[in-house]
Design goal:
five-stranded antiparallel sheet; alpha/beta; 16 helices; binds 1-deoxynojirimycin; 28% helix; 549 residues; 17% strand; 21 strands
């Protein structure tokens, strides 16, 4: 059985991964074609974002039919081939299940709109207020009010995301049965992992106006959430001990995550939480320009690491995914110290306690988009906020600058495979433009280069398998108040690991206040280290893993 503590997951956003038929849109065959590359990286699982039938208003997170593959991505035969080929290489597939909402094209919703009471109860329909306005003032995550009026019914339905993504009513047991059935269907196809999209939003609490925020406190980590997850576990993936699961937890609390991902809670194997990726926000407000707050980043990561460890719960650890900017652009230096900073960030995250997730292209040091015009952006959230920001009084230029920094499209430009046109992603016209730096940043130039970012990730994946303290050790922050160094110690039985990262470009002498004799350098992004009497002189973005056994 795969031990998920020794495993690494590689995330694929299929539409931007590799296109085999020249339509400019990545496909399942594209994933199959690149399995040897993924195998070379050494990861255990591939998480693929949704490729089910969908009108694609939110790039597949609006599912119309959970049992079939969207023709843009291929066919069920393509999926089965991918599954077989992955298995041959010892790689397991993790599917992305979107159950907080469906697409408005889903037949359940269509029946609901047609007046079928059974299916109306699959969703959340409410009467408006006395003056006819929306039932509550909750905001959609993509901007605007979260309720949509249906004149024929004189009722509103809830959509926490896009208006084409109506929220499911999990308080209806029939919905919960349908969801289990879908998971079992994919289990029968040999799927060994599931990621559950925004799954901590499925249990809504009171439908009241929120005078303190955007409504999230009424639907986040709601009253029945643990009950529903235990039920889903028991009625589906919990029946196969080999399956691993990860829940995407939006604005969650750590206390709830002790339950979601507790070793004995029979809910999920692990959780994604996002607090550490809001350190360049203003509170929850993402559409602002605020520099990264390093101390905040450290405090959040350390709190979660220690808290989850003490409560025997498991984290997914990561810097990015298809909703996030590229880490080397966000936290590192994509110019002068591109390689060093990409490797430093990798060391920091892969040394933590938890299962690391690598997002496609991260292992190549891919950077944010270089888009200069709004029409190069495709993401519905970015386009909505471009308008909203201008309605708030920002100029077009200022709105664009904010979109350039925070847009989800930063992580969605095609994977850069080689130095050919469109980075070798497609022979057609890509659905979103490739970053112009593909001649410098691409897979072909890195796979055989020992000093590349790719080779460094490969070593990290391997080390987690070989070195028990990385997989099993507990964690202690070191010098938590240091303004530029991120350091921690992991301990497992007699083994110790010290990870020290210089988060900035200025050289710094870090005093470990420890006797480091006997420690060997397991990995570093520089060929030589300067360690004397417990003091380490760290070069720009230098990262070191020291090991004692
Ligand atoms: C989280 C997904 O990662 C994101 O891409 C999507 O837009 C929302 N959930 C809604 O499904």
């Amino acid at each position: 059985m795969t031990d998920f503590r020794k495993s690494t997951v590689y995330q694929i956003y299929p539409r931007s991964f590799y296109d085999t038929n020249g339509d400019g849109f990545g496909d399942l065959r594209g994933v199959t074609a690149k399995l040897d590359y993924i195998k070379e990286l050494g990861v255990d699982y591939i998480w693929m974002t949704p490729f089910f039938v969908s009108p694609q208003y939110d790039n597949g997170y609006d599912v119309e039919d959970y049992y079939n593959i969207d023709p843009r991505y291929g066919t069920m035969e393509d999926f089965e081939e991918l599954s077989r080929e992955a298995e041959k290489r010892g790689i397991k597939l993790m599917l992305d299940m979107v159950f907080n909402h469906t697409s408005s094209n889903h037949e359940w919703f269509q029946k609901a709109l047609a007046g079928d009471e059974k299916y109306k109860n699959f969703y959340i329909f409410k009467k408006g207020k006395e003056d006819g306005s929306a039932p509550t003032n909750w905001e959609s995550k993509f901007g605007g009010n979260a309720w949509e009026y249906v004149p024929e019914m004189d009722e509103y339905y809830l959509h926490l995301f896009h208006v084409k993504q109506p929220d499911l009513n999990w308080d209806n047991p029939e919905v919960r049965e349908e969801v289990k059935k879908i998971v079992r269907f994919w289990m029968n196809k040999g799927v060994k992992g599931f990621r559950f999209d925004v799954v901590n939003l499925i249990s809504k609490d009171k439908y009241e106006d929120d005078y303190e925020g955007d409504g999230r406190r009424f639907y986040t980590d709601g009253p029945n959430i643990h009950k529903y997850l235990k039920e889903l576990n028991e009625g589906s993936f919990g029946q196969d001990a080999e399956i691993i699961t990860v829940g995407e937890m939006s604005s969650t609390s750590m206390e709830n995550c002790f339950g979601y991902a507790g070793a004995d809670s029979n809910e999920l194997s692990m959780v994604f939480s996002f607090h550490h990726l809001k350190v360049d926000f203003m509170g929850n407000e993402k559409w602002v320009l605020v520099p990264v707050d390093f101390m905040k980043l450290k405090n959040i990561l350390f709190d979660w690491q220690v808290g989850m460890s003490e409560n025997n719960a498991w984290n997914a650890v990561f810097w990015c995914n298809h909703d996030q900017p590229r880490p080397v652009s966000r936290f590192g230096d994509e110019e002068k110290y591109w390689k060093e900073s990409a490797k430093m960030l990798a060391t920091l995250v892969h040394g933590l306690r938890g299962t690391p997730y690598i997002y496609q292209g991260e292992e190549l040091g891919m950077t944010n988009t270089d888009f200069t015009k709004i029409d190069q952006f495709k993401d519905v959230e970015s386009l909505n906020y471009y308008e909203i920001l201008q309605q708030k009084g920002l100029s077009k230029e200022d709105a664009l600058r904010i979109i350039q920094i925070h847009s989800r499209d930063n992580g969605r430009t095609p994977v850069q495979w080689n130095s050919e046109e469109h980075g070798g992603f497609t022979t057609g016209t890509p659905w979103i433009e490739v970053n112009n730096n593909y001649k410098k940043v691409n897979a072909e130039s890195q796979i055989h280069d020992e000093a590349s970012i790719f080779s460094y990730y490969k070593k990290l994946v391997q080390l987690r398998k070989e070195v028990d303290v990385i997989a099993y050790g507990d964690i202690k922050p070191l010098d938590a108040k240091h303004p530029s160094v991120f350091a921690y110690e992991r301990t497992y039985e007699n083994e110790k690991l010290i990870v020290v990262c210089n988060f900035y470009k200025n050289e710094v002498v870090w005093d470990s206040k420890m006797n480091l004799e006997g420690y060997e350098t397991l990995l570093s992004n520089y060929s030589e280290q300067n360690i004397e009497n417990g003091k380490i002189t760290l070069k720009p973005y230098e990262a070191i893993m020291l090991h004692l056994q």
